[in-house]
Amino acid sequence: MPKKLFVLLSILFISFTSTNAQTVFGKYAGEFMAIGIGGRPLGMGGAFVAVANDVTAGYYNPAGLANLNYPQVSLMHSEQFGNLVNYDYAAVGIPFGTDMSFGISVMRLGVDGIPGPHIGYVYLPAFLGIIATSMLMAPFGAKLAHSLPVDKLKRIFAILLFVVGTKMLWSAFM
User: Fold this and answer.
1) How far apart are alpha carbons 68 and 101 in whole angstroms?
2) Angle formed at CA 49 by CA 100 and CA 59, multiple of 5 degrees
3) DSSP one-letter string for 100-142
4) Rounded distance, CA 163 to CA 153, Å?
5) Nearest-angstrom CA–CA distance, 118 and 112
6) Which of 24, 29, 68, 117 could cross-link 124 (Cys pair, CB 3.0–4.6 Å)?
């Protein structure tokens, strides 16, 4: 029994060290929303929420679309970090009546020309490695889980969840 517990704890320790690069929590998920769009709003330093009355209101304050008097189109392309990151924005606003409008906005933040074998944002060597490792380790994990007492397995899983949750919170706030 101690050998099985040692193997389980060793696997947990190795998995924590390998997930270090994957726990950057909440730092860059919505960064494209902070770039801003449109010459007029960017010229005001992004302080445009209260005066948004054109088609860019779909980005800053959607209630401002009700102030449209005529159909409007907005297109923007921006290159960040020396042509590395492309930021594109397109919007269409069509007024209906005196106080209603229909608007749609599309944003794209992309890095073109990513090297290596990938499909979209999925890097194929890592994907195949995860599949192979899962197929090799799943029978071992199932056998180990069935050999341990339920109470001990629950405690180990609770410790695992506590450590992972603590690490995520630590990474998010520190």
Assistant:
1) 7
2) 65
3) EEEEEEEEEEE-----SSEETTEEHHHHHHHHHHHHHHHHHHH
4) 15
5) 12
6) 117
Query: Is the CB of residue 91 less than 8 Å from the CB of residue 108?
Result: no
Here the tokens at position 75 are 């297109």
Reported as a single tens digit per residue, the pLDDT across 126-145 is 999 999 999 999 999 899 88
93 burial type by CB count under 10 A (0-12 exposed, 13-18 middle, 19+ buried) = buried
- DSSP for 65-89 reads GGG--S-EEEEEEEEETTTTEEEEE
Work out the end-to-end distance of the chain between its first and last CA atoms, rounded to an integer number of angstroms.
38
Q: What is the pTM of this model?
A: 0.52
Q: Which of 73, 72, 80 is nearest to 34 (CA)?
A: 80
Q: Whole-angstrom Cα distance, residue 50 to residue 63?
A: 10
The owner of tokens 């005196």 is 98
Ranges in the chain, pLDDT < 70: 1, 9, 12-30, 32
Distance of CA 3 to the CA centre of its chain: 39
- Residue count of the chain, please give it: 174
The answer to whether the beta carbons of residues 73 and 38 sit under 8 Å apart is no
Q: What is the C-alpha to C-alpha distance for residues 171 and 73, in angstroms, rounded to an integer?
A: 41
Residues linked to residue 151 through DSSP beta bridges, in sequence order: none
